[in-house]
Amino acid sequence: MSDFQPSNLRLPTPGCYADPDRSGLTAENVFDGMTEHLFYTLGKLAPTASRHDLYMALSYAVRDRLMTRYLAGIEALSATPTRVVAYLSAEFLIGPQLGNNLLMLGIQQEAAEALRRFGINDINEILDVEEEPGLGNGGLGRLAACFLESLASLEIPATGYGIRYEFGIFDQLIRDGWQVEITDKWLKSGWPWELPHPDQACFVGFGGHTESYRDEHGSYRVRWIPAEHAIGIPHDVPVLGYRVNTCDRLRLWRADAAESFDFYAFNSGDYYGAVEEKVGSETLSKVLYPNDGTDEGRRLRLKQQHFFVSCSLQDMIRNLDARGIPITDFPDHWAVQLNDTHPAIAVAELMRLLLDDKHLDWEVAWNITSRALSYTNHTLLPEALEKWGLGLFGSLLPRHLELIYEINRRFLQQVRLKYPGNEQILRKVSIIDEEGDKAVRMANLATVASHHVNGVAALHSELVKTELFPEFAALWPEKFTNVTNGVTPRRWVALANPQLSALLNESIGTGWINRLDELRRLEQFVDDSSFLERWEATKLGVKGQLSRYIHRHTGVLVDPTSLFDVQVKRIHEYKRQHLNALQVVAQYLRIKNGQAEGMAPRTVIFGGKAAPGYYMAKLIIRFINGIAETINADPDMEGRLRVIFLADYNVKLGERVYPASDLSEQISTAGKEASGTGNMKFAMNGALTIGTLDGANVEIREQVGAENFFLFGKTAEEISALSQSGYRPWELIGGMPELAEILRLVEQGHFSNGDGDLFRPLLQNLTGRDPFFVLADFNDYLRAQSEVDLAWADRGRWNRMSLLNSARSGFFSSDRSIRDYAERIWKAESFPVTITCELD
């Protein structure tokens, strides 16, 4: 019998390798690792290996190097328990992994050298092979990804919990100007970054009924008898920190059937019925955000949320059990963050596990739950605050509905004591919405149970307290706080913008990569004309790369010396891409009417997806493309104006766009955008912002200086007052002749091949109700755009403003955000992993 024990394993460390082919960081080590994986893992010989084969081989070789740190961290936490952050999110838009992990390990050059030995002279040929993981849709998921990377870089133990979606939300094509959705088969060629752990599967129930009984001590208990089950199989993705040993994990759950094949049904001739349960269960992790426009779609969404939350909480409890830690110590070992309301069912599920499985008393279980959970609110829009009808909820999660009723009963009793006889407050704060079709309010549930509730920008957090949850804030003022979002400078500058990174490294050193406040040292060059010329040349080089990409994918030639005016984000009315489109038409008309003096030559770039069922957002995409078709075909616009819509906008494309942008369009209706994170990525890369006082724009303007920000539009207070006084947009048009001409041109079908009806719903929306105050801000927006033209004409001034935007963007690092969470909400501390090695 072998005397080997896991504790005897000596883990290799950089500079000391038990197996250099698996751990070494030299080019030779990487080459050897690739060769081994080509042969043993992929079954290929180097001379016949395709680019995809080389991508897979390099990825496996890099993953080998993550394992040393990943396993060392697991061993360290087992030996010295500490509080671990559990970040629950329906989305993790993590982006391509190979380039990022090469950066984290510091072996980009070594990998490039290894590839040259395979005949690949440009590493980007291999990096471009990687599919974007379809695990998220927009800002919510990208924020979660930035946070996980910062947690690892700050050496804070963490696990991100989510769903391993087989298909992403969709890939976007543009046909005849319209968005067309096709299946995002991101796993079709394999994904080398995950580690399946079928031995750690969890069972999850749905439907059925509950029954009460007395336990052996005579205590009243309830058991849930589900009608169906699914199995959650965890797949771990290592998340390495920047140049540290800490390697956290993203644990994604794949759904499987509890009984995959019914032999009796098969033998009876019911071939579909034999696999029906398997098909139904696996649907849970099939696609990100199924359409909730139908009852079945809503049912699937709720099942998805319960599925990943239940698996995750079971996993946390199992972890404590395996280490012999009492369940009452749960909050001392797990800080559970609810990223928006998607995981809010965690309140009821944790209570169920504690009451029904662990047989704790209510007060003890509630104390554990409320000490463990915290909740991030990401929106003020009522339609985005999840509510589930009681019929659907009760049929799917009967035990959870019972628990929510009891949580609500106890909570409302507290409210009655504070506000006796005030039924209006009771109706507002109740977890159960009693108006119309009764429903469970998930935001209220999360707020009642969590020890902290935070917004994601200073303005947003204030509006959460004063407009969204004022009654809760009055009850528990200590609960509410702000943590302004941030983005990781590793991916969004160091990886995405190597030209700028090289200039920064040369001028201020490399410390900025993990201490972004060091960008402030750039201010010493603000009056250095030779440095500003290098700054501009760096930007021009990146714009040239994007120009070539645009030509390859759209056929449109753009001038890289023109002003790149960019709005890339999810398409939504409140983000007001149609306001931007209208100002493009204004520029078009000025050029046509001979009024173009002083106007900067512009390339206006749009990108983003509309939800499949969101007609107005899809019509806005068609509107933008109609404008683009007209302008790009007009010889009068040559050298003056181009309009581009980049299809299928994602992280991979964002890494091309943010570094090349001159002007960042952050033009949402004030009070509607919670934070925004694209605005931060633009600023870090030296783009200037034109925007409203909305979301994190407020703090960006404070940080970079009002003189380096193009402000326009009504404030949140003015918007609110205008709404309350009875906003009548049609009355504005008579006093705005330029707008009237634009609307008339659209109505006549000028941008729709003469079809005057195509954009009629959009025009009716704008001139009738105008719910997001596009016309109210239009003239001031044009004024701010004229200020942009003036600034662009003075190259020295523009370059100084650009440099200062980068220099003063340190506050918007996700490292700062995570420090705020760790200190104020999670009480989580850095836990450096020390890897030791002895040479025999």
UniProtKB/TrEMBL annotation:
Instruction: From the UniProt annotation, give the residues forming the signal peptide.
Output: none
Which InterPro entries does the entry mention? Answer: Glycg_phsphrylas, Glyco_trans_35, Pyridoxal_P_attach_site
Q: Which cofactor does it need?
A: pyridoxal 5'-phosphate
Biological process terms in GO annotation? glycogen catabolic process
Keywords on record: Carbohydrate metabolism, Glycogen metabolism, Glycosyltransferase, Phosphoprotein, Pyridoxal phosphate, Transferase
Provide the Gene Ontology terms for cellular component: cytoplasm
Reactions catalysed, as given in the entry: [(1->4)-alpha-D-glucosyl](n) + phosphate = [(1->4)-alpha-D-glucosyl](n-1) + alpha-D-glucose 1-phosphate
EC id: 2.4.1.1
An example of a Pfam family matching this protein is: Phosphorylase
MF term (GO), any: glycogen phosphorylase activity
Residues bearing the modification N6-(pyridoxal phosphate)lysine: 681
- What exactly does this protein do? Phosphorylase is an important allosteric enzyme in carbohydrate metabolism. Enzymes from different sources differ in their regulatory mechanisms and in their natural substrates. However, all known phosphorylases share catalytic and structural properties.
Q: Indicate what this protein is called per its UniProt record.
A: Alpha-1,4 glucan phosphorylase
**Source species:** Cyanobium usitatum str. Tous
